[in-house]
Amino acid sequence: MRSKNILCAVFGFLMTLIAAFFGASIHSSKTNVHISHLNELDHIHHFDPEIIPQLNAQAAMFTMPFVLALLFFELWIVFKSDIRQVKNIAIGLTVAALIILVVAILTLMNPVEFDFSQWGYVWITMGIFIVAGNALSIFIKGNAPQKV
């Protein structure tokens, strides 16, 4: 099971990095629209504010494979782990992955309303929970049931 926990921690970390990139890019394009002449002078380029809904949908699409893989492996850990503490942590992390999945589906359905510069914090926060929970699960020895 430790290999599954390492895999989930890696997927969670990659998803968090992607979410942070898109969240920062969208936030920068929204806040720097009024000083575009200064940005051009310094050769700083941001995305156009008109394509923010497209970026919102792209952010949800790019993180969706990671979320689905996380959900699959967390459920695998829940059903296959012999250590009760690891199983309990995996149940909580499955809920975190489901929260990300619901917000991702809502973002794909309405990318204008669910702005990733605000809702991306859900991805980042839950992703950090997933990384930390799986890193903790790697080191838990726990109380495995005795085989007789």
Sequence-ordered SSE layout with sheet pairings:
Blueprint: H1 2-31, H2 36-41, H3 52-80, H4 84-109, H5 116-139
Helix pairs in contact: 1-3, 1-5, 3-4, 4-5
Give your account of this protein's structure.
The protein is mainly alpha-helical. 78% of the residues lie in helices and 0% in strands. The protein contains 5 helices and no strands. The chain has helices at 2-31, 36-41, 52-80, 84-109, 116-139. Helix 1 runs antiparallel to helix 3, helix 3 (52-80) packs antiparallel against helix 4 and helix 4 packs antiparallel against helix 5 (116-139). The longest helix has 30 residues, at 2-31. The mean pLDDT is 84.
Keywords for this entry:
single chain, 148 residues, mainly alpha, 5 helices, 78% helix, 0% strand
Question: What would the principal axes of the Cα set say about the shape?
Answer: elongated
**Rounded Rg:** 19 Å
Overall average pLDDT: 84
Distance between the termini: 21 Å
Q: Would you tell me the structural class of the helices and strands? A: mainly alpha
Low-confidence stretches: none
Main β-sheet, in a few words?
Answer: none
The total count of strands amounts to 0
Query: Strand percentage, roughly?
Result: under 5%
Into which percent range does the helicity of residues fall? over 70%
Count of separate DSSP helical elements: 5
Report the order of strands and helices. HHHHH
